[in-house]
């Protein structure tokens, strides 16, 4: 159910984006908090900044808040959000400024513009890249860290004051509409008890078991959602920046929150950017809204939000593995050779791709039905031998019956993988001789002699090809698996070869799975 809702809102937001008046398009940050130089685009109205601890998510979020003059409350500037510690005593450690810069590309009233914050010595200055008569854009900016809301312990003084200095204001119902969409409770009324800069929520519920209670008795998730709902429910054309949005929330509630935020963004022309460590939050926006940061020896970089990158960074292990199912041992080794070439190209650890074989293509139909039943079909790639290509349509029909898409490939040729290997060895014998420690002349003779020896044999083509390959392996003192794996590697690297074309199909499926 949620999947359909997400896909619907993704399409609606994508279609509306070019027509909004104001949007932040790109930011570039240089020499701030360990970020040497990074550029980040925001092609979708609701973006998630994800990554491990200390990768710069909050730094990016704070930098974004400095673009606009805030129409609602105090404005944020680099001097306030990235302050230095200074001292008159030279013997005490202190911060020393560098060439700090934050530049923006944004649309104001649908007109593209640029702005730069740059620190010279101890002072931050704005510029507009030489354009005259340009002012800093204005917009409502909301910047909040949900994990650092004022805790009841910090506002315990409200209790001690009794009623003499406490203001009590009822929060209008429209300000808690968002909370009603997310939380399982229904609130009859919500009050804000306040004194000076401190405040306390007080709820009245329709539930007889919990008629009324203060923020002291709310869960962390309930408090976060109520305060967020109160703050942003009626904002229009605003930039919403939320740090650690998943704080205190169940995974399902995280997804519901992200769905409702995107609906709010659609209705009220909001641009929302959040940070998170949660894969549930990350998967709640389309791929163009996922921004994954990673810190390396070269600084902070933006990396593709592939599932293996995300899981490695967030969990230090791979939770999902991609399985490639082949018909037999020879096709398995051919595919292993292909994967050995693709892995470094895609920055992919081979351990997350499990290449295996089954008892044959006849079992593939059963697997497709079973995997579809448990929503696991998207983690499997099926590979048919060349002489089984006519079976491909039947398998795709089975998947369609289960209302699933199928990742399926066919090995090169219209014959068995053994025949493909033998033909390839014969065609490029001089090249393969080096791989198996033979002279070019000897290897060519070995391959051609066995082909001629079995040329007039009767029996199934596949069985004859198996015998030829087995005989070649005995003669050059290796096993058929190594020969198959070598052919897979070499032919994948040969531009324009049938195996190189097959590898492109496998690469596309790997990228689809990662995304």
Automatic annotation (TrEMBL):
Annotated InterPro entries: AAA+_ATPase, ATPase_AAA_core, Bact_Antivir_Def_Nuclease, P-loop_NTPase, Rad50/SbcC_AAA
Residues of the AAA+ ATPase domain: 43-297
Top-level taxon: Archaea
GO biological process: double-strand break repair
GO MF annotation terms: ATP binding; ATP hydrolysis activity
UniProt xrefs under SMART domains: AAA (SM00382)
Name of protein: ATPase
